[in-house]
């Protein structure tokens, strides 16, 4: 399943996060520190969670999978807004996926997406016209 393209505002937010990661990693003195090119090419992962030591989430710009749901290899280093996996791939991280209880509360309260109700009970009911045939 291919994910939708990011909007210009979302792309700008990813680039701002990428700059923050570049700044944070420049202050670290370690042998595994990613290069500026690796940071520029790093895929962006949002709505992610940790599974079996790795990351699972929505990923944009992955060199192999493109825009898709991705499961990474185990994480070896991480910080605020970034993670490096066992395969040596750097991910720029967005927001973590809400806990299962939070997602369940949203579903059970009748909310989906950005808080829209599943059914609008206050919407006017169209009057049935006996002369018209049933239209699905």
What's a concise summary of this model?
The protein has three helices and eight strands, in the order ααββββββαββ. It has helices at residues 8-26, 36-41, 100-108, and strands spanning 44-51, 54-62, 66-71, 75-79, 82-85, 90-93, 111-112, 116-117.
What do you see in this structure?
There is one protein chain. The protein is an alpha+beta fold. The chain is built from three helices and eight strands; from the N terminus they run ααββββββαββ. It has helices at 8-26, 36-41, 100-108; strands at 44-51, 54-62, 66-71, 75-79, 82-85, 90-93, 111-112, 116-117. The protein has a six-stranded mixed sheet with strand order 3-2-1-6-5-4. Strands 7-8 form a two-stranded antiparallel ribbon. The longest helix has 19 residues, at 8-26.
Molecular shape: globular
- Distance between termini? 30 Å
Q: Indicate the proportion of strand residues.
A: 25-35%
Query: Biggest sheet: strands side by side, in what order?
Result: 3-2-1-6-5-4
Structural class: alpha+beta
Number of strands: 8
Helical element count? 3
Helix percent band: 25-40%
What is the residue-mean pLDDT, rounded to a whole number? 79
Major sheet details: 6 strands, mixed
Question: Helices and strands, in N-to-C order?
Answer: HHEEEEEEHEE
Work out the radius of gyration.
21 Å
Note poorly predicted spans: 117-121
Write the layout of secondary structure elements.
Layout: H1 8-26, H2 36-41, E1 44-51, E2 54-62, E3 66-71, E4 75-79, E5 82-85, E6 90-93, H3 100-108, E7 111-112, E8 116-117
Parallel strand pairs: 1-6
Antiparallel strand pairs: 1-2, 2-3, 4-5, 5-6, 7-8
């Amino acid at each position: 399943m291919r994910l939708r393209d990011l909007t210009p505002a979302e792309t700008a937010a990813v680039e701002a996060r990428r700059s923050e990661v570049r700044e944070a990693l420049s202050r670290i003195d370690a042998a595994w520190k990613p290069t500026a090119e690796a940071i520029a090419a790093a895929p962006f992962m949002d709505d992610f969670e940790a599974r079996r030591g790795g990351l699972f989430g929505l990923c944009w710009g992955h060199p192999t999978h493109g825009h898709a749901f991705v499961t990474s290899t185990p994480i070896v280093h991480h910080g605020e807004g970034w993670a490096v996996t066992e395969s040596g791939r750097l991910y720029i991280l967005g927001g973590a996926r809400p806990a299962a209880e939070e997602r369940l509360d949203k579903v059970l309260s009748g909310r989906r997406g950005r808080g829209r109700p599943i059914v609008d009970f206050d919407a006017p009911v169209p009057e049935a016209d006996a002369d018209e045939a049933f239209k699905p």
